[in-house]
What does this fold into?
Amino acid sequence: MDFIATSVGTFGYPTSPGKKRHAWLSAAGLLAVAVALPMLASPASAEKLTIWSGWPDLVPFYKRVGDQLKAKYPDLDISVEAIALREHEKRLALSLPSGAAGDVIEMEVEAARYLEAGLIPEPPASIVEFVKANYDMTRVKTATYEGKIYGVPLFQGQGALFYNTDTFAKAGLNSPPKTMADYTAYAQKLVQRDTSGAPTVSGWSLRLSGGGSGIAEKYWTILYNFGGTLLEEKGGKWRAAYANEAGRNALKQYLDNVVTYRTVSPEMKADAEAFELGQTAMFIRESWVIGDIAKKAPNLKYATAPLPKGTLMVPVDLYVPNKGPKSQIAWDFVQKANEPENLLWLLENTAWVPNRKGLDYSAVLGKIPQLGAFVNTPADHVFFTVPAISPASEILTRLAARLEKAFTDKSLAGNDAGIDAFLKSAAEESDKILAREDLLAKP
Amino acid sequence: MRSKPKWLFPVLALLPVLGLYACLRIYPIAETLRLSLFKWNIISRRKPFVGLDNFVELMSDPLFLEAIFNTTIVAFGVLVITIPVGLALAALINGRQGLRRSGFYETSIFLPHVVSLVPAAMAWKWIFDARLGPLNALIGWFGIPAQAWLFDPALSLVCLIVLCSWQSIGYAVLIFLVGLKNVPEALYEAARLDGASALQAFRYVAIPLLRPVMLYVSVITLISSYNIYAQAFVLASDVQGAPGHLVRVLVLDMLENSFRNYRVGYAAAEAVVLLVIVLVLTGAQFRLFRDRSRA
It folds into this structure.
């Protein structure tokens, strides 16, 4: 302590040359100690692996994988940095071009942009072989660019129907709806109203508001089950494909439920929260809701069912964005995360559906039968996904902004011509975005 | 011996600050202006010069036009509420100076300005809740039917104005109080001797003298209101996808174009438009509030 007080205390005062030299030497010595201390505190062999996730509910999973990896790398320090998905997307946009991203990162379809820009290095050959051997290649599309595999699929978001079995029984319904027409008919039977006729428990909770692309993704799912799709590919280019009968039927279904039959209203609680509170009889959502219900409404009696034709599937893949000495550890982490035992743990504890094929789900299904609608889908059930093109998000966001207004537009209820005009205008905007990016297919 | 020019020392003394200002303020603005002329995708290697194309596209972009409309309504709504209410509250508090609880009034009015924005917005979200919110319960006592505050496009704008005004009034009151305390007592005395009532003294003595303060408060309020983002975002968001109507404001649209659509050049063009709007409005306010006695 004396040393510090003396040397620091001499600064700023007239001193003899010898004293001055002594002070500078002392300061230099202090600085050297300060720099060396952290290095001494941690062994040179310690490695820190940073995992960037957009799903905070996956933190325990990644920590578990990290703990297992310590058998191979005893000094490994795993840091899981999980934030909300939209924020995660922003940090990727800022960090990938500058090479400052985490060691292992999650990406959805937006990976296409980074692969196209050459910002993600190719994995080792062993990883490519691992992916080819263990995954259905239709699920690896988003991690593939120009025929080369860049990432490893981990899990996927896919929709199914959640329905409250008590509410169904009260309404005399003993099975889930089979066709899209059934959905509206069921919603009419399931809705509960107050004395003024306003719904208090929605028959079918639809995504009607909120920013971002979610509204358009939900619309797309209903559109698909009416036999349509949002974007169609022709010769490597794309075109809006919803200004037609299927698009009209899908939008009509929203208008029927919101405006005509009022089985749901925008100001009602919606989505998983409403379902957990018993304020909606049914809704379409991804499998994570099962884990959420287990935590927040463990006594809720509910079941799940696959959608009539197919569902939007959003795969989440793992990438290693940085080359260097740590990349091998990072790929080991990715591979460890995809071991069957860990994937089954993931399914059981978070309800996210793994992408790897050949997994035996029977033990998990015995405990959580509601997962059946997600992992045991009928053979003809179709999984479609958002195309891996750069303007996909913009197309969905802009369509969502239009749809939000249309869902409550009374002038469109029962007005096919009005609906067609709305869809035509929205599709023109989608095509304009595709044309701007030189991705518009010829009609 | 030639003496050093007098301006040398002040210039040298100011140089570090000016340098910092140039780096942190001037350079980003210049860079934004430059980016607005390019098709500048955040990750694309090709970033071609497109001239004014981004601005031309903006003029027919319905989301941008909606954002600019909403932002303008909110900004002027907040201004129209903040200035008179802030001035009235400041006058009331100033009249109670030295009396009991005057400090309490000052603190309670200023408190919303320092409360963290997100929890405050969450609290207001609960107040505006269509089914469980106290606001609907309150208007129900007067026989007014419950309103979908956060879902109706017009009402959600009103909610945003109320929230932003609640936050900005505290600051306005504080600045107006400083201004009121600087009005010489002798002028009030003279007005009283001339037979002016307290209200007349405030109207004809205090308000003219407060013009520079009003200019400052109105400029700050308008600029900060044009830059709102978090309030709109929190009022409409929910982790489980049970959100409200998202009031599209300019900053939110810019963020979406930058980080979701990766169109940084296009978002920069929006920022330039915002800059021009704020500059024009600030100029207009300077003109409106200028001290005519000096003309």
